[in-house]
Amino acid sequence: MASLLVRHIKGLERPRMPFDGPPWLSEAETGLIIRWIRDGARNVDEQKAPVPIGAKLRLRGILQAQWVLDETAFLVTDSTDIREVTIGSPVELRARVTAYGDLIAERLSGR
Asked: How do residues 35-82 score in pLDDT, each as one tens digit?
């Protein structure tokens, strides 16, 4: 999942949340937040949050498989700039969000 909130809660991004932890959120609490986001992050009026189309993301983590960063899948195109990456290594992903919520990689580089 590309949610920065979830990445901070899981400790994939720094600083880890909650800021006054430990204790950190339990797996059940984290799962509740993930389900809320996957269901559209609805507000009190049941309106879905808009997809941030075109938003730029910069994520750092471990390339777990081809085009998967810390359980977050992303798409690679012919114009993606790929530099010195291997599966299992730390990488930085720069991507944009599509209208469907997918991530299109603009640059993927080893760290």
From this structure: 999 999 999 999 999 999 999 999 999 999 999 999 899 999 999 999
**By the 8 A CB rule, do 81 and 105 touch?**
no
The Cα–Cα gap between 59 and 70 comes to 10
Which of 16, 34, 33, 32 lies closest to 24, judged by CA? 16
Q: Taking the domains of the chain in order of start, what are their residue ranges?
A: 4-38, 56-110
pTM: 0.83
Residue 35 backbone class (left: φ over 0; alpha: ψ -120 to 50; beta: rest) = alpha
Closest by Cα among 110, 69, 65, 68 to 90: 110
> How many other C-beta atoms lie within 10 A of the C-beta of residue 59?
19
